[in-house]
Amino acid sequence: MLRKVALLLIGVVIIACYAVPYLFVGQIADWTGSFLFWCLAGLAIILLNAAAMAAFTEDDE
Question: Which of 59, 58, 51, 39 is nearest to 10 (CA)?
């Protein structure tokens, strides 16, 4: 169950990575808004990947 939720949230973050820069951060003249978003999105993907892969074992097929 945790794996499915984590993979679904990864999809949401990926969609946000396309939508946010064009809809919200594009109007900010300073680059720090975009930098903060990409740092948080990258951290979210790393944590969600760790959560999705935590349940895998060598016996899973």
Answer: 51
**DSSP conformational letter for 58:** T
pLDDT value for 28: 67
Tokens representing residue 11 in the block: 């999809």
SS3 label, residue 61: coil
User: Amino acid identity of 50?
Assistant: A
- Taking each continuous run of H as one helix and of E as one strand, the counts in the chain are 2, 0
Q: Would you say 21 and 34 are in contact if contact means Cβ atoms under 8 Å apart?
A: yes
pLDDT tens, 8-59? 999 999 999 888 877 777 666 667 777 888 899 999 999 999 998 887 776 6
Q: What does the block give as tokens for 6?
A: 């984590």
